[in-house]
Amino acid sequence: MSVIYLLITISIFVAIGFFIAFVVAVKSGQYDDDYTPSVRMLFDDEIKKTKKQGIQTTEEKQI
């Protein structure tokens, strides 16, 4: 039974460590991304089919 108390204690300390690391990363700006949202609409989101399926890709249509 004492092993369970030991494992619970260790897991709580590990969880607190990960939470502190997450808070430090957020406060330091690790997850701030100002560039990608402004250019996301410029990226092509079309799904390109292969020629094996009988559908031409957009690159082949342009040629």
Automatic annotation (TrEMBL):
Domain of life of the source: Bacteria
Keywords noted in UniProt: Membrane, Transmembrane, Transmembrane helix
Family annotation (Pfam families): FixS
InterPro entries assigned: Cyt_oxidase_maturation_cbb3
Keyword flag GTP-binding: no
Record carries keyword Secreted: no
Transmembrane regions: 6-26
NCBIfam families, per the entry: ccoS
Protein's UniProt name: Cytochrome C oxidase Cbb3
